[in-house]
């Protein structure tokens, strides 16, 4: 049994909290730590198989725990892409092996990538996957669905299988046209011009139409513009089963950040304007945004320094997700209850997950700078490095095991 004594609850009370476990642990935190449900990060790229030099499940699992995350949903854009029974089984085997090596029983679910030539796999694999991921525009990896008939069929088959369709909503045709238009420009900020908001808006519109057509459940990943939010808000009002995710990078960074970070903050969809950022926060407050997922997309610093065109898109984020949100809480941008809803309870209900008793104990008053050297992710850098954040996870409890997060050790 794990007995956490004198821990603060969300309501501000100080009490003891018991978790069933084979281990006998007593942790008296003397009213200094706050108990939150551990996070579900419904959007990570842990790079297994095929790009383990960027991340694997050994480093990824440690990064997850350091961020207070005990459940992840991993994306299918691997090498090879996870699009069939065999690639899924093989991927799962490798993950289990890597997790066993670090003795972290991280909870995980896998997305199946929608691929035109493997659509029949959707129904067959329904009990083994968390949902179907559709790349409406190409990003890292070769997955992309440009044929409207295949896209239509994907929604139909997912609806029949009672599976959520998670979309990377950027219109491939617009992306390609604009890449031609701006060919030769190497300033990384051109990324936001090429992957123009019109591409995202068009794709979200199309996905909502298909969700309506088949009464499918739609999960719009990394919403980045005010117009997408308006479309989703209206669709929800019309009873369409659409859910929306925001990422920390779209919430805490904007186009101005290219000046300082250059290609390091190149990601898909790209950074948008300050007004879009504000619209995202408003959508969090009014319930249009259902979840915050890190879209943890590690690439090595060496790769991120390649010139525009060769530089891969994506930023890591699983370790900084919770500290950024706790810091935002101190700035009165979000409540603790809302953080719990967006990073845990909403995701549990959207994906109908069984509840578990994993928790994270946070020190709401701890002020600490994000430092690359302190990160557990294999890529070893963060676009939030140098930010002093107030509020950090200290202990994460996963399946009745206590993991201590801080690098320097923590004394109550
Ligand atoms: O920026 C991104 N990086 N967006 C994606 O859609 C994929 C991700 C990656 O896997 O690197
Ligand atoms: Zn992603």
How would you characterize the overall build of this protein?
This protein has 412 residues and is an alpha/beta fold. The chain has one domain: TIM Barrel. Strands 5-6-7-8-9-10-11-12 form an eight-stranded parallel beta sheet. The longest helix is centred in the N-terminal third of the chain and has 18 residues. Helices cover 34% and strands 21% of the residues. The protein contains 14 helices and 15 strands. It binds (4S)-2,6-dioxohexahydropyrimidine-4-carboxylic acid and zinc ion. (4S)-2,6-dioxohexahydropyrimidine-4-carboxylic acid binds next to loops.
Overall body shape: globular
Unreliable stretches covering 5 or more consecutive residues: none
User: What is the helix tally?
Assistant: 14
Which CATH C-level class is it? Alpha Beta
Q: Supply the CATH superfamily name.
A: Metal-dependent hydrolases
What number of structural domains do the residues give? 1
List the bound ligands: (4S)-2,6-dioxohexahydropyrimidine-4-carboxylic acid, zinc ion
Largest sheet: 8 strands, parallel
Mean pLDDT: 96
